[in-house]
């Protein structure tokens, strides 16, 4: 491939993104690349700063900078219903008492703003949101609720000790009837123009990894048990609950999320989903 500099790729460092990345190297053997693994908030920053060419990022971050990015079709982390790893922990059930203060994770933008949308528009509640490190007991010392995402949310859900838990994927689906996309794979428009051959190879390798691991999820389940703990049955349900194809239902849910975010002034502009066009059978038109 023509570019001497390796194409830089951001990998979300949570189990929910493993299908996109854990077999990536097997499908990218001819590609000169550097893979950088971080939490979503850090990847959001790196892609925006131009330190990454393509990355899995928070969907909200795409909304903020959509004019600079193109989405890679058929690649996302979403759910239609329960997501299991984006959870609001509260000391009392919401039906009994709405929270006045919620500690929120600092590791992702999509989930925090999804919570703000659900609380404001579904529950007509506007609590104070306090950024905090993702440690549940510490978060709840001075707050009525705590929002955790990713692997910390999963392990906390196994040891919730009487706390009440709202799964934000389930809450969104119950309210809107739509799916929700928490992370997308986006490339900088400059990379799509100047590194088109490399980006095409990245696109194919991510699809190859996704197809391989979702077709044979035993490797994902084993890895999750080894690294995070839990039972095989839990992880089997977990990976089956997630959607990685970014189909029309998930796109519709994300578009509604962006619409509500604009109405609440969480975003300052309307957002269109703009897709990278790959000349292959997997091509998806904008």
UniProtKB/TrEMBL annotation:
Alphabetized SUPFAM superfamilies for the sequence: Periplasmic binding protein-like II
Listed EC numbers: 4.2.1.151
Keyword Disulfide bond attached: no
GO molecular function: hydro-lyase activity
Gene3D superfamilies: Periplasmic binding protein-like II
UniProt keywords, alphabetically: Lyase, Menaquinone biosynthesis
InterPro entries tied to this protein: Menaquinone_biosynth, MqnA
Catalysis: reaction(s): chorismate = 3-[(1-carboxyvinyl)-oxy]benzoate + H2O
CDD domains with a match to the protein in the record: PBP2_Sco4506
Pathway: Quinol/quinone metabolism; menaquinone biosynthesis
Gene Ontology biological-process entries: menaquinone biosynthetic process
HAMAP family from the UniProt entry: MqnA
Function in brief: Catalyzes the dehydration of chorismate into 3-[(1-carboxyvinyl)oxy]benzoate, a step in the biosynthesis of menaquinone (MK, vitamin K2).
The family this protein is said to belong to: Belongs to the MqnA/MqnD family. MqnA subfamily.
Protein known as: Chorismate dehydratase
Species name: Paenibacillus soyae
Record lineage: Bacteria, Bacillati, Bacillota, Bacilli, Bacillales
Gene assigned in the entry: mqnA
